[in-house]
Amino acid sequence: MKVSRRNFIKASTVGAATLTLAGGLFSADKWLRPVDAASDSQEKTAFTFHPPDCGGRCSHKCTVREGRMVKIEPNDWTDNRYSLICLKGLSEVEHVYSTERLQTPLKRVGKRGENKFVPISWDEALTTIADKLKKLQSQYGGKSILFGSSWGVDYSMPFIPSLLGAQVDGGNGIDIGIANGLEDTTGDFFYGAMYNDIKDWVNAKTIVLLGINILETTLTDSQFFFDAKDAGAQIICVDPSYTTTVAKSDQWMRIKPGTDGALLLAMINLVLENKWYKEDYLQKNTAAPFLIRLDNQKLLRQNNSEDKADKNPYMVWDEISNSLKPYNTPGIRPKCEGEFEVNGVRVKTVLTKLKEHQKQFTAQWAAQITDIPEQNIIDLTRRYALNGPAVLGWGWGGPDKWTNSDVTGHAGGILAVLTGNIGVKGGGVGCPIGHYITWGWDAALGSWTLPTEFKATPLEMPVADMRYKSNSVKALINHGNYLQQHFANLNKTVEWLDTLELVVTIAPYHNTSVDLADIVLPACTSYETEYAYNNLTIQREHVLLQQKVIDPLHESKSDFQIEKELAAKLGFGQYLPKTKEDYLRAVLDTKDPRLSGITLETLTANNCVMRMKVPTEPYVGHLDQVYDTPSGKLELYHENMIEFDQALPKFEVPTEAGNNKYPLQMSQAHTKYRVHSQFVEARWINQLDPEPRVEMNPSDAQSRGLSNGDMVEVLNDRGSFKARCKFTEALRPGVIRQYEGWWTKHMAAGNLQNVTNDSHNPRGYKRRYGPVIPYNDTYVEVKKA
Ligand SMILES: Nc1nc2c(c(=O)[nH]1)N[C@H]1C(S)=C(S)[C@@H](COP(=O)(O)OP(=O)(O)OC[C@H]3O[C@@H](n4cnc5c(=O)[nH]c(N)nc54)[C@H](O)[C@@H]3O)O[C@H]1N2
Ligand SMILES: Nc1nc2c(c(=O)[nH]1)N[C@H]1C(S)=C(S)[C@@H](COP(=O)(O)OP(=O)(O)OC[C@H]3O[C@@H](n4cnc5c(=O)[nH]c(N)nc54)[C@H](O)[C@@H]3O)O[C@H]1N2
Ligand code: SF4
Ligand SMILES: [Mo]
């Protein structure tokens, strides 16, 4: 057998080797095959899926002995490439029983944030909450109540917010920075996700990854990274730090953080100057031939109305008739380049304008900004443009979380368009991690519907702004660790909470958001429920079901049960499903042929995993070259950005990087040891990664007189926190790293979120998802504590 790198990893299923090579993933058939469970009449097996937002969603086979979960193994999927589990999944055997579990409802007795609580009964807790919500709703309207939720919570009150007419935060400002610039080009509305399934990477010749640590942040897809490599793809990682993924790539470009836009703009310039673009593709599938009016910078349309493109088409210059034509006229050949006069107005094509605009962004210019040598930029561009099909991917964690990330997205989109890498096998642009969302072969699930008079109120502003601007919210009900994770600049969040009349946190563990609440409700983990089933999801072409594994621990209740009981107290009980089973049956009640034959019964018979009826080849979106943009084509020129001088992308130094007040950039990457703030208290994982460490390059430490392991204070104008430092050459000098997620109680003082940047780029309000939270655009000083 020819041993490829991939085979080697598969074969070396010895714990440590797998851990370091494949990022800690174990597969059903080879690793941890259980010692046969003791034949014990009190023993049962249950199947569930693991819900943390890690890109995975593995299915777990759980053994329960005398009511206690004693073993978790990877369950078999129909497509057994997904029959996997990682150390976090395995650790749930201990983690679920953690001493950090909330045991009873709690009521605050000290000051907010002082963390002084007394246990109360469920009846008292729910009555207090219901009375307050009813009062607020009748006095100020439903919009005075805000529901927010962590993303790892699969069921977080889908009904009560609508019944009350409350506002709901679905993750405002997170993971949307690059999408804001990219998706105006593609017309997609999916967090800038790549529409080529990662399993299609085997068809790519070149894969360029800007700030993605996929070998840690979507462990379950690591295999497809290696498949692509084995198939011959060259993988180039552009990352300020030396990461697990960098280590397994063919080339590393150590970019200066926050400058990806400059790199991509220079690449566009090189593609244009060297004519490395695909003119035929541009002419057929894109808005490159559209005409920009030089008097007002707008695109030339047939008339002056605001009508959509079908009634008021964009105009192009037809080469065949040598005349102006609506872009959707059959049989024409639009000119991609040229300048013309139309009724006394000068116009030029988008491509011509782009060529002029792009001249300023030379490779030499970008080399200075990005700190990547000019020749490397040229070589990278040549490879990307000429050695395709090529993938251009980025993570939601690194280059996304900057005030200028929309420029990165816009420039990246243009680069992929020019080189014809969208809607083709082996191509793709966007974020490839977290493919569990399955935007490809997805299916339409049903839902439990409420009478139409009940509707949530749309968010009146980005939630982060509620801390600064006057608004209607007087009560906040949140699930998980929302208060710590979903806002930067925690001190500001705490100030805001002090102005509210009620703060409720619903969580399984005693995290930072619990510290900040007035009333705390102990939630079940996904392993526990009062019902036969818990949740259901579509992941990677499969439908997964969660069976009940164990009874609720302590006095915890499932989120469904909490919502049901609270709804009853609010007088809405009749509108909710009676049981979780009723709810899930409604979800599976759909005419979508891809889900035919999938019911609670067939799922149960198939150990809670069933493949949907979808093709076996990897999904590639837009093969028909039809896009959901106003013109139906790939749009390079963003008219809505004319007022910000960003109709074509221009580099912009990120806010905090630019003000030069603090010298060190603080990266908050995501680690395989945790999912955000989950597993920080998991003792098995703490053995490997025991405490928060401020990582820094030894050169930055030396100049500050620090020794490895010193207690340091990290500070800026917003606040500070303290933790031990750890030296690593993996980090670029000038960059420190504090992995996100640690709770306040784990820090020697403060919280890492005290220093993070919560400013908003004004342009962001006009973008499709609103402004991004620029967590990574955080600059600090570090000193010995
Ligand atoms: N195990 C685990 N998996 C996860 C998560 C988790 O917490 N734990 N979180 C999930 C979620 S919600 C998300 S959003 C994703 C995030 O997934 P990723 O985007 O892969 O995660 P990060 O580690 O934040 O960032 C990736 C890389 O970006 C680099 N980087 C930082 N700044 C820049 C920059 O300005 N430019 C460039 N080019 N690179 C930069 C960092 O050094 C890092 O190596 O992971 C998902 N998967
Ligand atoms: N500084 C900084 N902050 C960041 C980031 C960063 O890079 N830097 N990354 C951001 C990103 S990309 C993201 S996506 C967000 C993620 O933010 P969150 O999704 O808020 O992060 P998690 O810590 O995963 O929160 C999940 C919470 O849900 C709880 N939970 C799990 N199951 C259940 C359940 O069944 N019921 C209830 N009620 N609770 C449950 C878990 O215990 C945990 O507290 O964080 C963002 N915050
Ligand atoms: S944390 Fe993610 S990769 Fe690990 S077992 Fe759970 S779902 Fe799978
Ligand atoms: Mo995220």
Q: What this model shows, in words?
A:
Helix 5 (122-140) packs across helix 20, helix 11 runs antiparallel to helix 14 and helix 11 (260-273) packs parallel to helix 16 (405-418). It is globular and about 80 Å long. It is α/β, with parallel strands linked by helices and 785 residues long. The strands form 8 sheets. Strands 7-6-22-21-20-8-9 form a 7-stranded mixed beta sheet. Strands 26-30-27-29-28-32 form a 6-stranded mixed beta barrel. The protein has a 5-stranded parallel beta sheet with strand order 12-11-10-18-19. The structure holds ligand MGD (2 copies), iron/sulfur cluster and molybdenum atom. The site of one ligand MGD has 37 residues, from helix 8.
Architecture blueprint of SSEs:
Layout lengths: L4 H7 L3 H7 L3 E3 L15 E7 L9 E7 L2 E7 L9 E3 H4 L1 H4 L10 E3 L8 E3 L2 H19 L4 E5 L10 H5 L2 E3 L7 H10 L19 E5 L3 H4 L4 H9 L3 E5 L5 H4 L3 E3 L6 H14 L5 H7 L5 E3 L21 E4 L4 E4 L12 E4 L2 E5 H9 L4 H8 L3 H13 L3 E5 L10 H14 L10 E2 L44 E5 L2 H4 L4 H8 L4 E6 L4 H4 L3 E4 L10 E7 L2 E6 L11 H12 L9 H9 L11 H6 L3 E3 L43 H5 L4 E4 L15 H4 L6 E4 L1 H5 L8 E6 L2 E9 L7 E3 L11 E2 L28 E6 L1
Parallel strand pairs: 8-9, 8-20, 10-11, 10-18, 11-12, 18-19, 20-21, 21-22, 26-30, 27-29
Antiparallel strand pairs: 1-5, 2-3, 3-4, 6-7, 6-22, 13-17, 14-15, 16-17, 23-24, 24-25, 26-32, 27-30, 28-29, 28-32, 29-31
Helix pairs in contact: 5-20, 7-16, 11-14, 11-15, 11-16, 14-15
